[in-house]
From TrEMBL:
Record-annotated active site: 266
A UniProt-annotated Pfam family: Methyltransf_2
Similarity comment: Belongs to the class I-like SAM-binding methyltransferase superfamily. Cation-independent O-methyltransferase family. COMT subfamily.
Residues making up the signal peptide according to the UniProt record: none
Residue ranges occupied by any O-methyltransferase dimerisation domain in the UniProt entry: 22-114
Keywords on record: Methyltransferase, S-adenosyl-L-methionine, Transferase
GO biological process: flavonoid biosynthetic process; methylation
Organism: Lithospermum erythrorhizon (Purple gromwell)
One function term, GO molecular function aspect: protein dimerization activity
Residue ranges of domain O-methyltransferase C-terminal in the record: 137-342
UniProt cross-references to PROSITE patterns, sorted A to Z: SAM_OMT_II
Top-level taxon in the UniProt lineage: Eukaryota
Protein name per the record: Methyltransferase
C-alpha cells in the first residue's frame, strides 16, 4: 500500500508551513538517535548480518530490560528514524495475516558501527548532546542580549575547564574526541600526501597525541613531537615515535620545519590565533610551513551538507568557546598574514575539514 500522501498530495501553499513544522523534529531526531546509540542498537543490528531484517521484538532480546513496553517503544523509535532514512522499514505479513515491521541498516548506519580500528561517530554525537553541554544553549538568547558565552553564563567557567570537575563528562568528552580523531585522521591520511618524505612534525595542541600516532603509524620515519599543556602531557600515553613535550602554545612553540594544528584555531578569538601563529612563525625556518586542519566556511551561507556542518560547528564554538569560531578562507588568510606568513593554500578536503598549508618564505 502506498502512502496516504500519494492519494491526497500536499498543496503547494502548505509546503512552507510543513517545512517550518518539520524543523523542531530535528532536535527530537538527535535525541532519539542518542538513545539508539546508548542502547547499542547499531551494533546489535550489525551482528545480525549485513542484509538482515529484524523486528523490534527481536532486538529487545539483546537488551538488559524486562520492560514489557520496550518492543513497542523501540518499534516507534525505529519507525521515526526510518522516516529520516536512517533505517529501512519493510512490512511483512505473517502466516496469520498480521503485518509486522522489519528493520534493516542503511549505508549511513555504517558510520555509527565501529570500524576495523574500533572507531565510530556515535560517541561524538553523545558528546554533542551531553546534557551538561546542551544546558548551555538555554543561555543563547540572554547571551545575545546581555553578552557572555552561553557555557560560561551557565556554569561560571570555560567549557575547557568543566570536564576536570566531572569525571563522567570528562570520559564522554575524551571518547567523543578520540573517535572523531580516529575517523577523520584515517581519511586525511588517504587524501593528503604532504607528510611524505617528512622527517619531523610538531603537533601543537595535540592533546594525548592521537593525531600524531596516526601519522607516525603511516609514516614511521617521522619523528613526532606532541606539544600541549603540562596537565595534558602528564597523562599522555607512550606512543612509538612520538615525544611528548609540555608548554604553552601562547608563549612559545618548539622549533621545527613543519607544524601541525588540528582544530585549534577555531577554539580561539582572532587575537589569540594571531599570537599563536606568530609563535609558529618564529619557530619555523624560512620555507617552513604550518599544516592546518580546520573547517572552512563559505564566503556566503550555502545549503549543502558540508556548509550545514561547518555552520553547526560555528554555533557550537559560539556557545562553548569565548571568541571561538569557524572561519572563511579569507579570514584564515588575514590571520596568517597578520602573523607574518606569506601565503595560505587549501590542499584537499576530508569530509567537512580542509587540510590547509600556511607558508613562511
Amino acid at each position: 500500500m502506498g502512502s496516504i500522501q500519494d492519494v491526497f498530495p500536499i498543496r503547494k501553499e502548505e509546503s512552507n508551513f510543513l517545512q517550518a513544522m518539520q524543523l523542531p523534529g530535528n532536535a527530537v531526531l538527535c535525541l532519539v538517535l542518542k538513545a539508539v546509540i546508548e542502547l547499542d542498537l547499531f551494533e546489535i543490528m550489525a551482528k545480525a548480518g549485513p542484509n538482515a531484517q529484524i523486528s523490534a521484538s527481536e532486538i529487545v532480546t539483546s537488551l538488559p530490560t524486562s520492560n514489557p513496553e520496550a518492543p513497542l517503544m523501540l518499534d516507534r523509535m525505529l519507525s521515526f528514524l526510518a522516516s529520516y532514512s536512517i533505517f529501512k522499514c519493510t512490512i511483512v505479513t505473517d502466516k496469520d495475516g498480521v503485518d509486522k515491521k522489519l528493520y534493516s541498516l542503511t549505508p549511513i548506519c555504517s558510520n555509527y558501527i565501529r570500524n576495523e580500528d574500533g572507531f565510530a561517530i556515535g560517541p561524538l554525537l553523545l558528546l554533542q548532546f551531553e546534557k551538561v553541554f546542551m544546558q548551555a544553549w538555554y543561555q543563547l538568547k540572554d547571551s545575545v542580549l546581555e553578552g557572555g558565552t552561553p557555557f560560561n553564563r551557565e556554569y561560571g567557567m570555560h567549557a575547557f575547564d568543566y570536564p576536570s570537575t566531572d569525571s563522567r563528562v570528562n570520559d564522554v568528552l575524551n571518547k567523543g574526541l578520540q573517535n572523531l580523531t580516529g575517523v577523520t585522521m584515517k581519511i586525511i591520511l588517504e587524501v593528503y600526501k604532504g607528510f611524505d618524505g617528512m622527517e619531523e612534525l610538531i603537533d601543537v595542541g595535540g592533546g594525548y597525541g592521537a593525531s600524531l600516532a596516526w601519522i607516525v603509524s603511516k609514516y614511521p620515519k617521522i619523528r613526532g613531537i606532541n606539544y600541549d599543556l603540562p596537565h595534558v602531557i602528564k597523562d599522555a600515553p607512550f606512543l612509538q615515535g612520538v615525544e611528548h613535550v609540555e608548554g604553552n602554545m601562547f608563549e612559545s612553540v618548539p622549533k621545527g620545519k613543519t607544524i601541525f594544528m588540528k582544530l585549534i584555531l577555531h577554539d580561539w578569538d582572532d587575537d589569540h590565533c594571531i599570537r599563536l601563529l606568530k609563535n609558529c612563525f618564529e619557530a619555523l625556518p624560512n620555507c617552513g610551513k604550518v599544516i592546518l586542519v580546520e573547517s572552512i566556511l563559505p564566503e556566503s551561507p550555502q545549503s549543502d551538507c558540508v556548509s550545514n556542518i561547518s555552520y553547526y560547528y560555528d554555533m557550537m564554538m559560539m556557545a562553548y568557546c569565548h571568541g571561538g569560531k569557524e572561519r572563511t578562507l579569507k579570514q584564515l588568510e588575514a590571520l596568517a598574514k597578520a602573523a607574518g606568513f606569506s601565503a595560505i593554500k587549501p590542499i584537499t578536503q576530508a569530509y567537512f575539514y580542509w587540510v590547509t598549508e600556511i607558508y613562511k618564505t
